[in-house]
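[Q] Does anyone have a clean structure-token version of this?
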Amino acid sequence: MARAVSERCTLPYLAGLVAADGTLYQREVRVATGSLSHAIRLAAALRRLGYKPRIDRGVRVFLVRVYSVSLVRLLEEEYGIPLGRKAANIKFPSLRGATVNCFIAGFTDGDGSIGLIKSGVKEGRWGPYRTPRIVYASSSTYFLKGLQARLEVLGFRRGRLTREAGVSKLKYYGCDNLDRFMESIFPHLLNPVRIGGARAGANSCREVSC
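[A] Here you go.
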């Protein structure tokens, strides 16, 4: 069965995705994704809300575009996303309840990554353990500090905030953090790359605990 985001979750999810990989213009909301499947799922969710998205092929990405002044204003006013080049100026919005999880899921599908890294050392080489790692990237350290605060409310622990080559990164390691992620954020993901990474990490944690 194809994964779908709920109607209640669609707008905060879209806002998180725009905060990561999108742009607001005066009359258009535009999101870029490397996955056609992700683009199709997002477009379907927007159609259920009455919008008329189109999918265009860009340079190594697919563009989901919605021409709607009202949607642009909604994302500006309720989620604090500025028009144009917003990467360094974005702030984590003031949200309540389950909408926070939906927003974080959208941002994860854009500028997050979930996977496994080798940890521990054996015979001078990294391994033999595989540790789940969740990483968020943004040009705005302020945004990631807000994200970190919200994730800690959800039970995430020991987040590491760093600055690398002009980009801020927030990193979480371990099965405990991935468990929190699978419980609160994973159900709202649409990007098959992020879904696959999260499942691989969860499967690894189950293997270790057996």
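[Q] Thanks! Anything notable?
[A] The radius of gyration is 17 Å.
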